[in-house]
Amino acid sequence: MLVSPGSRVAALAACGALLLVGAGCGADKSEEATTNPQVRLYGSDGNMTNAYAGEFKERADLLDGMKGTTPLTPLPEAFKNRLRAVDPKLTDYLYSAESYDAVIISALAAQLAGSTDPAAIAKQIVGVTNNGERCEKAADCLRLARDGRDIEYRGVSLNRAGFTDAGEPATASYATLTFGEEKLDDGKTEFVGAGDESAASTKNPPRPHRQRTGKAPSAPLVLGGLLPRTGDLAIAYPPLAAGAELALKEINAAGGVLGEDVRWVDGDDGTNPAVAKATVEKHIADGVHVIIGAGASGISRAVLPDVVAAGLVLFSPSNTDAGLTSVEDKGLYFRTAPPDSLQGRALADVILRDGPHRIALVARKDSYGEGLQENVRAELERAGIDGDRVKLLTYEPPADAKAPPLDFTAGAREIKEYGADAVLVIGFGESAQVIRALADSGVQIRH
Questions:
Q1: Which tens digit of pLDDT belongs to each residue from 7-16?
Q2: What is the pLDDT of residues 326-372, one digit of tens each?
């Protein structure tokens, strides 16, 4: 179900009003009822995936009833079939469309620039999505670009409006997801629109170059992967990789860019700054022009200075940290994922629908976790939820695979003593330890 932004805001306001009334009545309830309630679990894009259930093994039933949001548009079945042709084992589609669109947009920008020079590509990226002849398929868009015509790409995730001047989507679609029996229940998925089409850029890019006969001197275009094949965000790797691979396959089937097939140099970000920096260093040495990644916002923040210093483009399909909108990037950073300023509203909406009295917001300690936590807190406050009804907790994620597992015992005890009846867990694969700790501490998880 696609809910219009106006009706979603109205519902949020109504929920906030009801909650205020409920809080007043709740003061008469027994101490036991307010300090030891059943707890509803909520998640975000980093853990609302089928792969997340694998982190629990024999205790995956703890997830039953957990709700959350993720940037996700209703995906056409034809697109899913094309993804499964690339990866038959694919069970999740999180950021697959955003990954696909990031690769397509990069290729179109290079074709319009008539060059693989990263600075020239960067100047075309926002314009590829705005104020031209609309096209949706890679082959059609490439044909127009080769003719030197301005285009307005509308892809799988980028289907309502183009990029803002900051190089990110002006609008987005969020899915409200619910875990059923140890996996996501697709029958309960709802879609909510967010953003503002008027925020899309109206600036004109440099004049497009018409392709001459044969290949361009600077061809081929080389893309480098910086996706989380390992680390805490590895649960998101399969759909990210499948989306990029599908786009590359379809671009080259349509004749490539500047007369040659686009090349892909694989690379892992490890959900770890050190691993990601080493991959970026290798990409620079290998002549990569556009880096597709990183997976996590904090990793992109860590490598962006190196990427900018080398004069390359960094284009992430999954960064959502709202602070990246204004990061110093010399015009070389882009993303197809929407900022968490939009997801914060969607998540607050989901939580408020259930009428909680006390809410705990638990986040991994990085730019993604703390940024989204603050956005949700602000939206709850805007809806009338007082600060004493919201508890903020953060945890330090394990440094790498060799580090001891996350121990959230003290945090779980704190949440139980606080009497929360709603707990939002913002994290990646490691956040499973938060939910395990809640259950082990005697918190009654509502299914």
A1: 444 444 444 4
A2: 999 999 999 999 999 889 999 999 999 999 999 999 999 999 999 99
DSSP state for residue 233 in the 8-state scheme: T
Around Cβ 282, how many Cβ atoms within 10 Å? Answer: 13
One-letter amino acid for residue 163 of the chain: F
- Same domain for 305 and 163: yes
CATH of the domain at 364: 3.40.50.2300
Q: How many CB atoms lie within 10 A of CB 431?
A: 26
Amino acid at site 60: A
Contacts of residue 342, defined as CB under 8 A and 6 or more positions apart, other chains included, come to 172, 174, 194, 195
Any domain includes 224: yes
**Domain enclosing residue 394, as ranges:** 38-67+341-445
The separation between the first and the last C-alpha atoms of the chain, rounded to the nearest angstrom, is 23
φ, ψ (nearest 5 deg) of residue 223: -105, 140
Cα 392 to chain centroid distance, Å, stands at: 22
- Examine residue 28 and state whether it is found in any structural domain, yes or no: no
Closest to 416 in 3D by CA, of 438, 385, 393: 438
Check if the beta carbon of residue 304 is closer than 8 Å to that of residue 319.
no
* Rg from Cα positions in the chain: 22
The model's pTM is 0.87
- 404 and 271, same structural domain? no
